[in-house]
Amino acid sequence: MKNYSSKNENEENDLLTNDYLVKMNKYWQASNYLAIAQQYLLDNPLLRKPLEPNDIKKRIVAPWGTVPGQNFVYTHLNRVIKKFDLNMILLSGPGHGGHFWTAQTYLDGSLSEVYPQFSQDEKGLKNLCKAFCFPGGMSSHVASDMPGSLHEGGELGYSLSHASGAVFDNPDLIASVIVGDGEAETGPLATSWHINKFINPITDGAVLPILHLNGYKVANPTVLARISKTELKDFFKGLGWKPYFVEGSDPMTMHKLMCKTLDKVIIEIKELQDTARKNNDDTRPIWPMIVLRTLKGWTCPKEIDGVRIEGTHNAYHVPIPMTKPNHISLLEKWLRSHKPEELFDEKYKLKPELKALAPKGKSRFGANLHSNGGTLLKELKLPNFKKYAVPFSGHGTVNSQDTLVLSNFMRDIIKYNPENFRIFSPDELPSNRINAIYEITKSVFNAEIIKEDDNIAHGGRIMDSFLSEHMCEGWLEGYLLSGRHGTFVTYEAFATIINSMIS
Questions:
Q1: Do the Cβ atoms of 316 and 297 come closer than 8 Å?
Q2: Residue 202: which of 281, 135, 98, 314 has the closest Cα?
Q3: Contact 134, 169 (CB under 8 A)
Q4: Are 454 and 461 spatial neighbours (Cβ–Cβ below 8 Å)?
Q5: What phi and psi values does residue 176 have, to the nearest 5 degrees?
Q6: Which of 159, 200, 288, 328 has a CA positioned 20 to 30 A from the CA of residue 39?
Q7: What crossing angle do the helices spanning 67-84 and 98-107 adopt, rounded to 10°?
Q8: What totals of helices (H) and strands (E) does the chain contain, helices first?
């Protein structure tokens, strides 16, 4: 077995030095700064002159509260991608905070490569700030037109199912997922914690959930943030996960803790996969996950006009509303607290020693082939449908059923595409008479299997052993958007429900 813990010992030692952590903190500050600038500014993006009213957007609409925590995760995942040479994608589950993604992909250059108007200079940075949440610009959530995004964040709840769909038949891929604690209260997400019963450690990749507990939704506290740590730990253990906790508010302490925790988690994932593959043992492992507890709106002003902001629901939306003349100076003070002059050079580019922290090329989240519009798409091989025709000489001369005939066609699609096609259905294939497929494959189920179970195994091409339409549709979506093929089987009455999810 590979000794992952000994890889890159020099970097491991660097983590114990203040210099490395300071650089990480500055990179995080740069991403937070760009997110604030996108939210508020039309011009003067690096404050090369005093902030004026004309520099600020007339209407400021994007939520802030989730942004610094997501920037924190992105910054740290960059480090483990480089350290362990990972093939990793990231899905952002929270419904808003899209300016964290545009900030991060701008810093590593992948946004500029897709959208040249966001060039790495003064003009490009001005365009970036203006475009966010502006008519004809970019969405407030991590939308599908963002490089590296295969998850549309506007409808909450599907992040984990999309992630697991992406890792099916992708044994070297890790799909990291930021799960919002508000999102965690939706039906689709609540049921999606069971993805671990359907991931094969030999043939599939891994999903790394990172639950972001910042304590609040729009106006109310979140349930998972208001139960005891013991209860929360037991909750995830009961769902078959091994939770690691990263909690706090002091940035430097949190950086060091997140570095050590992520290293443990990545090594654990790799060792679980190595053991399964070496021993040809596809028994379900207990996969690790991370619970990240931070303040809502972490690093924003603690108080505005006598009202507490950081760490409360007031940080969800716009921490400093531009409603009073003195608020401009408060915004400038907040922006300058990030010391942009230490982050960007005179040509408006991220300083080289900070840019070096980001992955290169296709290793960047914004450029990973698995999450960019089917760039890995393989052709689906289809049999000639005409050979499945049912010959008959007259009315009533042949006894046949349409879906039984269809199942022969679907069986052969699987035969021609053994690693590139799956069927998804909420426990409805046998009752829809799609029976012929069981001649060559099984339904995937990685929990306990008993001898009386029919056509169930730890591996297969059929995903119908879970009743949730949300999960099955999310699986299919993640599978398709990462470059493979599949189909959804359901009854007419339920098809309209599924259609609304797909729409």
A1: yes
A2: 281
A3: no
A4: no
A5: -85, 140
A6: 159
A7: 40
A8: 15, 12
First and final C-alpha spacing in the chain? 45
Same domain, 273 and 394: no
Query: Would you give per-residue pLDDT tens digits along the chain (503 residues)?
Result: 566 654 455 555 555 578 999 999 999 999 999 999 999 999 999 999 999 999 999 999 888 999 999 999 999 999 999 999 999 999 999 988 999 999 999 999 999 999 999 999 999 999 999 999 988 899 888 988 999 999 887 678 999 999 999 999 999 999 999 999 999 999 999 999 999 999 999 999 999 999 999 999 999 999 999 999 999 999 999 999 999 999 999 999 999 999 999 999 999 999 999 999 999 999 999 999 999 999 999 999 999 999 999 999 999 989 999 989 899 999 999 999 999 999 999 999 999 999 999 999 999 999 999 998 778 898 999 999 999 999 999 998 999 899 999 999 999 999 999 999 999 999 989 999 999 999 999 999 999 999 999 999 999 999 999 999 999 999 999 999 999 999 999 988 778 878 877 77
- The residues facing 351 across adjacent strands are none
- Asked whether residue 20 is assigned to any structural domain, the reply reads yes
CA distance linking residue 90 with residue 174, whole number of Å: 9
408 in the same domain as 340: no
Exposed/middle/buried for residue 85 (C-beta within 10 Å: 0-12, 13-18, 19+): exposed
| CATH number, domain containing residue 349 | 3.40.50.970
Query: Do 358 and 299 fall into the same domain?
Result: yes
Same domain, 350 and 424: no
CB 288 within 8 A of CB 242: yes
The helix, strand and coil proportions of the chain, stated in percent and rounded to the nearest 5, come to: 45, 10, 45
| Domains identified in the chain, total number | 2
Are 353 and 459 within 8 A, CB to CB? no
CA distance 65 to 97: 8
Q: List the one residue out of 90, 104, 224, 97 whose CA is nearest residue 159.
A: 90
Same domain, 138 and 202: yes
Could you identify the residue written with the tokens 């982050």? 343
For β-strands 443-444 and 456-457, DSSP reports them as: parallel
Q: Are 156 and 126 in contact (CB under 8 A)?
A: no
- Give the Cα separation of 116 and 249 in Å (integer): 37
Residue 375 lies in a domain: no
Side-chain-facing half-sphere of 2: CA atoms under 13 Å = 14
CA count, 13 A, side-chain hemisphere, 455: 18
Does residue 248 sit in the same domain as residue 392? no
Which one of 313, 346, 370 terminates a domain? 370
Give the range of the structural domain holding residue 68, as residue numbers without chain letter. 4-370
